Amino acid sequence: MNWYVLIVKFRREIQIAQNLERMGIETFCPTIFETRRWSDRKKRIEVPLFKSYVFVRLEEIRRNEVFVVGGIVRYLFWLGKPAIVDDKEIDVIREWLANDGKEIGLSPLIPGQKVVVAEGLMANKTAVVQKVGKNRLHVVLEKLNMILNLDVHSVELLSNK
């Protein structure tokens, strides 16, 4: 069985996933909580992580059964075939949601670590982390005697030395 991606009507994702579950079709509609503000109040509501998408896991021959439920537009296609999502990717989304959206599988960078710049003009250059912020970091390119201010995701860990 494969995971397929359904394109559904906007703001009906959760309802459609529930209806598919009642039919016995395994679904995954990842949700997060957002605080919405109106003129008179604030309220925390559950919203889909991926707008207009619901993941379904079923056999290829059962793909058309989902169209019994109203609000489903079509399957998402990639290169002329229905897009298939790996089990590992679904597991990563589930793990990410379980960790409240914090990054997973990455070691936090600390000053003194050696990294390789992954993108930009200084790609593939070795640098040493000098300062780590929330989304940015300062690295020193020792051979060029330069300090760069980079996005945290634009470097790869080289070693812990």
Keywords:
161 residues; mainly beta; SH3 type barrels; five-stranded antiparallel β-sheet; 14% helix
Unreliably modeled segments: none
CATH-defined topology of the largest domain: Alpha-Beta Plaits
Tell me the total number of β-strands. Answer: 14
What's the gyration radius in Å? 22 Å
Report the helical percentage: 10-25%
The biggest beta sheet reads: 5 strands, antiparallel
How many angstroms separate the termini?
A: 44 Å
Give helix and strand order, one letter per element, not per position. Answer: EHEEEEEEEEHEEEEE
CATH class of the largest domain: Alpha Beta
CATH-derived architecture of the largest domain: 2-Layer Sandwich
Strand content: 35-45%
Number of domains: 2
Supply the number of helical segments: 2
- CATH homologous superfamily identity of the largest domain: NusG, N-terminal domain
Average pLDDT for all residues: 88
Shape verdict: elongated
Q: Give me the secondary-structure category.
A: mainly beta
Protein name: UpxY family transcription antiterminator
Pfam families: NusG
Domain NusG-like N-terminal: 1-94
Keywords: Transcription
What is the gist of this entry?
The chain has helices spanning 13-22, 87-98, and strands spanning 2-8, 26-28, 31-37, 42-48, 53-58, 72-75, 77-78, 81-82, 84-85, 114-117, 126-132, 136-141, 146-151, 155-159. With 161 residues, it is mostly beta strands.
